[in-house]
């Protein structure tokens, strides 16, 4: 039982009567010092030995696995390699200490109270987590949208007397003075970015991770998306860490592993403007302690609320049942490395996607996200010059709210507040992006208006793009709810067909092309299609029969909204396909490609032939390349970071592109 | 002997008038003793209450047993040979099941029983069976736990059971082969199932003990021409026979190695702080190849169970000493009573060597935190394996059903398999609606260079379940799947029978199956030995 008597509760009913509690409320009522110094006595995993961090390091260094890898390394003496391994481990290891957890709790509490009005946590999820932690090793898998959330899970678990996790972090954090060390002692362990083919590093890392899981000495937290999403959209999961984490189960070293997806949603993301600039090619500032202090002006701002939604704990054993045959590990000694079969790899990939989907489903959609969806469908000049009618926007937002609920999205719409107040307070919170003046809404564009030099047209495009991409990222927070019906709407729009099987094959085609852009669980195309159909039917947009999908008069508004929502993606992809086809160059580097596409897009935007700014985002560009690579239209050369195009006029994709959807 | 339970009719557990558990009879060290801790253990482990009793069917009613399918011509011709036989219902039921939990609840289809006395009797019976197309099922001691003795339901021919248990003469020699079922199982059965004995470390398993085998098959008699200790004459044909589980013929004569009775025997035991340390110690003992005649490691649950079977102590001094020991181990040495486990040891040989050997083993144990815990604990540990089968019958009186099963596994997987299989049993029971937490326990019973044999016990209170046998089968099935997924073998010594047939192909590959199948097709083309075990 959680200490509900101590941490009193203000319930806000948001969705399906799920109860969220504001954990900051209690923090505002009692002293942070008292909070940081209270007794912390969590119930750990029952099978766990009470080992120290030095025991963990020792176990890793002395493992059969590492000894085997070290013996394989030729070129230098065993002692030297072992020394090297020790060095890697020192650089990597966390050094979790209760004292620093208290310090962390104290600091984080202070900072969060400045930044956020409330931090809502679902108690039911926490209860289930507390239970799960005692039964099997637990993997906490939050999404990552902001640096701020790095310690949020630890903070919550400390507050509720649940064991503190160790957290996988990127090595740049470790090199921050003092802060790096504080993070390390708060449970962070650090992984290099480009590991490449450094076998020894891989070996130390994987053994370290596996040992943590195997012993269950602490819950393990990592970002399955691999990094902070710059677009606030879910990122296709990375599998390296997932492989390491799941292997102890596949090899039978633990009975089960529990995965806990955690969805963190923000009303307003602290680094919103940095993200947009970064996507446009302005490099992100290096993580440094001084940079952190400079960023402290962000503390002056209001960032609204944060929601941390702990998902239902998932048993890996149950999920994998019938999918894999663990006996493939029976013929090689357990401590030696073994390449998993494709069956296992597919299963890991599937699980990783499932987790990200679950994170999406648990994310809360704010009124602002709905507004962003709608604002982006207005012509750009309306936003920058004439302004969008406030009244119309309000009406449309309320219409969209109903659609989200129809589509079973988790909505974070304040209860017991007049809708008009919700609208205006939302706009006020996002004053850095839009402003509301005389019944109209305008896009706020950065830059010094008093500046003497007028901007060149190209600079003007970039300036608008920065503002639009901020809006885009908030739209992205809601995208997962609309993607499947949206793709069906697009298919209906393009094919003009009513035949279910024709729509299905086009649906699959789009799903395939966009599967680096949106999260689709592999092998579930027909379920996705069915889901799209049933949602469109539910909101009254279409009528379904055995063979046919007929558009209803009442559904035109929904279908048009959905189709327009995805239009920027289609436009961006088509533009890049066209660039690749028309451009004679068949070999190019990433460095050449990104600016070239940006130039082309800028020109087209200025000439009025392109209506989206999203293609300017490096994220979109990378996704297109990844998709083409997956579809085997382009190849990447390992060494030179060069891409080879053998994509000619849709020849390679030809088989799957229906004639009515010319890509080039 | 009991048909519906284990072992001798006079030996059984019961609750006396005072509600204390008691073991009747005179055959065992525990016989006639009061076991004060057993009732509490039963109640706390299973929630099995004295108030909730399920009497086992005490007498067999002939009408409850299916009438036999008789082959008159076969019977008539056989009667003239003078080999004793029976149609008696009790005999038939007795011989148509082993000791797997399920078979204790089943009936039979067999028509007659023959009691063969010598090789020539068997040759005659097999010849006639071939002539009249009668299905033969050899029967040894009836201690099978793999449903090997159940009649295949698809069999429509007349089924005749062939009891060979009277062929084993009391020899007085020591073969050193001591399976837990030793009192009841037969030599032919040991060969036919690839049996393993407790003292295999000294004497070897059945394949190491056998020098010569004679088997009667529908194709004729198979045997080797000499008794050379090892031959390089192609694959060893003995290996077709050992483990053939009665599918190829009847083993009529076996020549086994014998050894002089050991001069000196000593039990021993070691307490370890936890199971992990215990396994590490056993592995080291195996690595140094200094395993005593027997070395077994019981997990914490089994340690507690062994404790519950302690008979009433007669003197205050002994109980005082027990208390002192407990204090020393848990308080002074800091062992957690819920984690510690115990290894039992049995040394055999000449006195001096035994003492030397004992020291060596205890020295290794000490390196793994083991503390010597006395001869008495060791001896009780071994007795436990003989009486545990009787205990199952007591459990059945109080809604508890249970079973044991075994596997062999490489050393690097011993801990994993023990943990995972036990956890799987607990989870399956919970999922299948068992109301009380089950007993799920294991012990490492044999050590080899390359691995160990692990023995699992599981039992649960089935009160409130509509179909306990089905639940029980599902749990057992799941446990076996878990064993295989964790790198354990299908069986170390219980054999395959019909219970584990479904996993044979993945165990020995399709080609392996084909090899065995072609042997069967050649030796017994008409499937006279139609028990359908193994393949």
From TrEMBL, chain A:
Record keywords, A-Z: Acyltransferase, Membrane, Transferase
Query: Subcellular location, in the record's words?
Result: Membrane
- Can you name this protein? Glyceronephosphate O-acyltransferase 2
Species this protein is from: Neolamprologus brichardi
Q: Main localization of the protein?
A: membrane
The GO biological-process annotations, alphabetized, read as:
ether lipid biosynthetic process; fatty acid metabolic process; phospholipid biosynthetic process; triglyceride biosynthetic process
Q: What InterPro entries does the database record attribute to this sequence?
A: GPAT/DHAPAT, GPAT/DHAPAT_C, GPAT/DHAPAT_LPLAT, Plipid/glycerol_acylTrfase
**PANTHER family attached to this UniProt entry:** DIHYDROXYACETONE PHOSPHATE ACYLTRANSFERASE ISOFORM X1, GLYCEROL-3-PHOSPHATE ACYLTRANSFERASE
Organism lineage reads as: Eukaryota, Metazoa, Chordata, Craniata, Vertebrata
Q: So, what pathway does this thing act in?
A: Phospholipid metabolism
Q: Which Pfam families match?
A: Acyltransferase, GPAT_C
Q: Where is the Phospholipid/glycerol acyltransferase domain?
A: 138-267
Q: Which GO terms describe its molecular function?
A: glycerol-3-phosphate O-acyltransferase activity; glycerone-phosphate O-acyltransferase activity
From TrEMBL, chain B:
Q: Which SUPFAM superfamilies match?
A: FAD-binding/transporter-associated domain-like, FAD-linked oxidases, C-terminal domain
Domain (FAD-binding PCMH-type): residue spans on this chain: 86-261
Residues the record marks as active site: 455
- Localization of this protein: Peroxisome
UniProt-annotated binding residues for FAD = 138-144, 193-196, 245-251
Q: Which residues form the signal peptide?
A: none
Q: What cofactor is this protein dependent on? A: FAD
What Gene Ontology terms describe where this protein resides (cellular component)? peroxisome
The pathway where this protein functions is:
Glycerolipid metabolism; ether lipid biosynthesis; Lipid metabolism
**Mind listing the GO biological process terms from this record?**
ether lipid biosynthetic process
Name the family the entry cites.
Belongs to the FAD-binding oxidoreductase/transferase type 4 family.
- What name appears for this protein in its UniProt entry? Alkylglycerone-phosphate synthase
* Organism of derivation: Neolamprologus brichardi
């Amino acid at each position: 039982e959680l200490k509900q008597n101590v941490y009193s509760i203000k319930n806000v009913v948001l969705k399906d009567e799920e109860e969220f509690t504001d954990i900051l409320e209690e923090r505002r009522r009692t002293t942070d010092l008292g909070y940081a110094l209270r007794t912390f006595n969590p119930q750990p995993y029952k099978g766990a030995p009470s080992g120290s961090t030095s025991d963990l390091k020792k176990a890793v260094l002395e493992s059969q696995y590492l000894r085997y890898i070290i013996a394989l390394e030729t070129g230098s003496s065993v002692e030297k390699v072992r020394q090297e391994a020790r060095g890697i481990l020192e650089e990597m290891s966390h050094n979790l200490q209760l004292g620093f957890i208290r310090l962390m709790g104290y600091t984080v509490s202070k900072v969060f109270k400045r930044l956020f009005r409330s931090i809502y946590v679902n108690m039911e999820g926490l209860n289930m987590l507390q239970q799960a932690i005692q039964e099997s090793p637990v993997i906490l898998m939050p999404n990552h949208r902001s640096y701020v959330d790095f310690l949020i899970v630890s903070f919550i678990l400390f507050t509720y007397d649940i064991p503190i996790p160790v957290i996988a972090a990127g090595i740049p954090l470790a090199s921050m003075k003092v802060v790096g060390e504080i993070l390390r002692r708060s449970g962070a362990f650090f992984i290099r970015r480009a590991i490449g083919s450094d076998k020894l590093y891989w070996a130390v890392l994987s053994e370290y991770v596996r040992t943590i899981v195997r012993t269950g000495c602490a819950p393990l937290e990592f970002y399955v998306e691999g990094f902070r999403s710059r677009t606030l959209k879910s990122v296709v999961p990375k599998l390296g860490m997932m492989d390491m984490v799941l292997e102890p189960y596949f090899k039978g070293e633990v009975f089960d592993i529990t995965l806990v997806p955690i969805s963190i949603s923000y009303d307003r993301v602290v680094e919103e403007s940095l993200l947009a600039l970064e996507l446009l090619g302005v490099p992100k500032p290096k993580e440094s302690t001084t940079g952190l202090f400079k960023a402290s002006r962000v503390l002056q701002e209001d960032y609204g609320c944060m929601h941390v939604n702990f998902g239902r704990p998932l048993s890996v054993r149950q999920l994998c049942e019938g999918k894999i045959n663990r006996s493939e590990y029976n013929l090689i000694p357990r401590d030696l490395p073994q390449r998993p079969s494709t069956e296992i790899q597919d299963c890991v990939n599937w699980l990783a996607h499932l987790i990200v989907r679950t994170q999406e489903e648990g994310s809360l959609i704010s009124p602002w996200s709905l507004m962003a969806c709608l604002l982006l469908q207005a012509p750009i000049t309306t936003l920058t010059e004439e302004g969008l009618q406030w009244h119309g926007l309000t009406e449309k937002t309320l219409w969209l709210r109903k659609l989200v609920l129809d589509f079973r999205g988790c909505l974070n719409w304040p209860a017991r507040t007049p809708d008009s107040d919700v609208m205006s307070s939302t706009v006020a919170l996002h004053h850095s992006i839009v402003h509301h003046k005389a019944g109209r809404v305008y896009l706020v564009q950065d830059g010094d208006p008093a500046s003497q030099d007028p901007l060149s047209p190209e600079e003007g495009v970039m300036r608008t793009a920065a503002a639009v991409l901020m809006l885009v990222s908030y739209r992205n927070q809601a995208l997962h709810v609309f993607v499947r019906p949206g793709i069906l709407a697009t298919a209906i729009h393009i094919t003009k067909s009513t035949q279910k099987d024709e729509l299905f094959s086009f649906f699959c085609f789009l799903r395939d092309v966009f599967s680096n852009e949106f999260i689709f669980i592999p092998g579930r195309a027909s379920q996705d299609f069915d889901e799209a159909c049933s949602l469109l039917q539910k909101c009254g947009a279409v009528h379904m029969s055995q063979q046919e999908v007929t558009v209803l008069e009442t559904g035109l508004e929904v279908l048009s909204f959905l189709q327009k929502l995805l239009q920027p993606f289609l436009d961006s992809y088509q533009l890049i396909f066209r660039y690749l086809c028309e451009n004679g160059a068949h070999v190019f580097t990433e460095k050449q490609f990104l600016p070239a596409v940006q130039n082309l897009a800028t020109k087209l935007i200025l000439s009025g032939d392109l209506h989206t700014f999203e293609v300017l985002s490096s994220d979109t560009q990378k996704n297109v390349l990844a998709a083409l690579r997956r579809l085997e239209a382009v190849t990447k050369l390992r060494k030179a970071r060069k891409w080879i195009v053998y994509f000619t006029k849709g020849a390679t994709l030809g088989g799957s592109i229906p004639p009515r959807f010319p890509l080039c | 002997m009991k048909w519906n339970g284990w072992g001798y009719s006079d030996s059984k557990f019961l609750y006396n008038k005072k509600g204390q558990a008691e073991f009747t009879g005179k055959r065992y060290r525990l016989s006639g003793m009061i076991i004060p801790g057993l009732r509490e253990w039963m109640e706390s482990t299973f929630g099995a209450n004295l108030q909730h009793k399920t009497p086992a069917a005490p007498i067999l009613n002939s009408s409850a047993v299916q009438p036999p399918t008789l082959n008159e011509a076969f019977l008539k011709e056989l009667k003239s040979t003078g080999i004793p036989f029976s149609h008696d219902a009790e005999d038939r039921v007795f011989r148509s099941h082993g000791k797997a939990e399920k078979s204790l609840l089943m009936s039979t289809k067999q028509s007659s029983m023959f009691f063969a006395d010598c090789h020539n009797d068997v040759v005659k019976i097999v010849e006639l069976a071939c002539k009249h197309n009668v299905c033969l099922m050899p029967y040894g001691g009836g201690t099978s736990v793999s449903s090997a003795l159940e009649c295949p339901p698809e069999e429509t021919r007349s089924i005749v059971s062939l009891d060979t248990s009277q062929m084993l003469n009391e020899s007085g020699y020591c073969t050193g082969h001591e399976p837990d079922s030793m009192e009841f199982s037969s030599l032919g059965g040991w060969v036919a199932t690839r049996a393993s004995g407790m003292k295999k470390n000294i004497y070897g398993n059945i394949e190491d003990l056998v020098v010569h085998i004679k088997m009667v098959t529908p194709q004729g008699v198979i045997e080797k021409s000499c008794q050379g200790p090892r031959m390089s004459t192609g694959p060893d044909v003995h290996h077709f026979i050992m483990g053939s589980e009665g599918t190829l013929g009847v083993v009529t004569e076996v020549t086994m190695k014998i050894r002089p009775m050991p001069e000196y025997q000593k039990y021993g035991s070691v307490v370890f702080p936890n199971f992990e340390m215990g396994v590490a110690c056993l592995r080291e003992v195996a690595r140094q190849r200094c395993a005593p005649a027997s070395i077994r490691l019981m997990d914490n649950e089994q340690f507690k169970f062994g404790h519950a079977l302690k008979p009433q102590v007669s003197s205050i001094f002994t109980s005082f000493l027990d208390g002192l020991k407990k204090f020393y181990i848990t308080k002074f040495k800091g062992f957690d009573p819920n984690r510690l486990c115990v290894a039992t040891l049995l040394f055999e040989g000449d006195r001096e060597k035994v003492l030397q050997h004992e020291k060596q083993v205890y020295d290794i144990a000490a390196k793994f935190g083991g503390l010597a815990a006395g001869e008495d604990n060791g001896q009780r540990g071994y007795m436990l394996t003989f009486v545990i089968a009787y205990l199952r019958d007591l459990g059945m009186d109080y809604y508890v059903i249970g079973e044991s099963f075994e596997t062999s596994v490489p050393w690097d997987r011993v801990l994993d398999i023990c943990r995972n299989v036990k956890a799987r049993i607990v989870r399956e029971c919970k999922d299948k609606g068992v109301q009380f937490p089950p007993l799920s326990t294991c012990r490492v019973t044999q050590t080899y260079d390359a691995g160990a044999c692990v023995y699992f016990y599981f039992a649960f209170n089935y009160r409130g379940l509509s179909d306990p046998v089905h639940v029980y089968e599902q749990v057992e099935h799941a446990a076996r799947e878990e064993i295989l997924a964790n790198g354990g073998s299908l069986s170390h010594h219980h054999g395959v029978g019909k219970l584990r047939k479904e996993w044979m192909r993945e165990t020995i590959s399709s080609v392996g199956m084909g090899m065995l199948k072609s042997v069967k097709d050649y030796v017994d083309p008409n499937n006279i030995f139609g028990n359908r075990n193994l393949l």
